[in-house]
Amino acid sequence: MELPYEHFFVRKYSRGNSYTLDEDFKDKKFKVKFINKYFIGICVLVPAIVIGITIFMLTYRPGSKLFKYRFEKPVPVKTLTAIYSDKILDCVKSSELCKDLEGLKLKYLERLQRKLKEKGVEIVDVDDLYCTSETMDKFCHSIKGEKVGLTTKELKTIISYLVDKKIELDDDFEVETIIKFKKFVRTFKKEYANADRYKIRYSYFRRNRVYIETFNSDKDRMYTLGYTSAADRSEVEMTGGILDSNTIKYVPEDDPLSSGYGQIKDPNYYPGKLFDWRDKGVIIPIRDQGRCGSCWAFASADLISAALAIGGGSKLTFSVQQMLDCILPQFRCEEGGVPLLGVRYAITNPYCTEEEYPYKKEDFICKQPNQCKNKLIMKMMSLKKKDLIEHLEREGPFLINMYADKDFMLYKEGIYRFRNCRRSNHAVIVVGHGYDDTHKAHYWIVRNSWGENWGEKGYFRVVNDFEYLDGTKHYYCDLQSKALGLKLK
């Protein structure tokens, strides 16, 4: 009720929300019922603020994953001086039109041919990107020694890239890059459809060479980068999930899993400096998923294989292609899949071995696996951080999700440390753990699915927990938030 009078005062309190008011009119008394909106608002607002602050403190408490995302500083990136930077032609610097570019290409060709021959590189004078005859093969595809051959068309394609970008030729840098590129092409059996594709991939490799060698010049680094199969890709291709992805539009319903173990006495307990299931003879050889986004299926299948072998069964290699073809239409090479559903499918359906349902590195129509006799009696377990060491040593490997960034794609060896924690796009399985005295770092030993030419023969080590020399904690990514384990029933 709105009161039109500006001057009044409370004389006495009667009952409820009613007040007796004495107005400055002569001997006139009246009672008005007054709803105190401010009082009601305060009663509602104060509890809401208290509840909000409580939720915030629990969610973003120091050490929690969201706290790290929002408040802790990411791993500081040391500023390193690049080992090399391109110099632009003088005609470009002076804003003049560069003339006689064809003549410049011939000069570059002559200089590079001379320098390559000094390095012992054979140049095959054919107008083709690849050597095809038997006489050329010994120069172009030999895997013995340091001799690396290339065709004149390859060399001209590289020179065309340099001139198109108006790059001043640095003989030593370019020759070393060409030699490394040829070894890379040979190692990973790369083939490019035409000169344009060759030019693009060489340019990415050239750029990544500078990045790799600049990073490796840091003496304080915990890991080393190398020329993996991703070295001819752009950063967008690497971080965009071109190689694999387990993040898709489909979101499965919540799946009730068995909980892990009871709380152990010390959450920082490490029963030894090194534990590795590879030493027990129960882990199958590393596999290579290729350019298909099937990491989720490889991680699921290899987790099942390890659990079965550790439980006393045969050491079998299980089918990845069956998971790709038969679970959901959304689970394709281009979009990836969900490891949880991969494991659930395998333990609730007849599951084939790799020999019975071989991997094709692409999508196919599901073949009903009626001929497959494998019936797996296993229980899925959702693991918490405090359970991981105990589960690893008692039951076997567990599956985790992670973010594969550019550095990870180019990882060669060492204890990997993520610079930023992001949503996952890659699935892998942990097969062991260890401790590094030099860096005071606990680490996981993790199995990947990118072949033995990647990382430490297909595996990598990644920080689990570590400290500075003064005992304060480092910032690191907690990869165990959605760990999945298996246990034989």
UniProtKB/TrEMBL annotation:
Q: Read off the Pfam families from this record.
A: Inhibitor_I29, Peptidase_C1
- GO biological process annotations for this chain's record? proteolysis
**CDD domains noted in UniProt:** Peptidase_C1A
UniProt key word Glycoprotein: yes
Q: Which GO terms describe its molecular function?
A: cysteine-type peptidase activity
Record's InterPro entries?
Papain-like_cys_pep_sf, Pept_asp_AS, Pept_cys_AS, Peptidase_C1A, Peptidase_C1A_C, Peptidase_C1A_papain-like, Prot_inhib_I29
Spans through the membrane: 38-60
Q: What range(s) does the Peptidase C1A papain C-terminal domain occupy?
A: 271-479
> At the top level of its lineage, which domain of life is listed?
Eukaryota
Per UniProt, the keywords (alphabetical) are: Disulfide bond, Glycoprotein, Membrane, Transmembrane, Transmembrane helix, Zymogen
Q: Where is the Cathepsin propeptide inhibitor domain?
A: 181-238
Give the similarity note.
Belongs to the peptidase C1 family.
Protein name, entry field: Cysteine protease TacP
Tell me which species this is from.
Theileria orientalis strain Shintoku
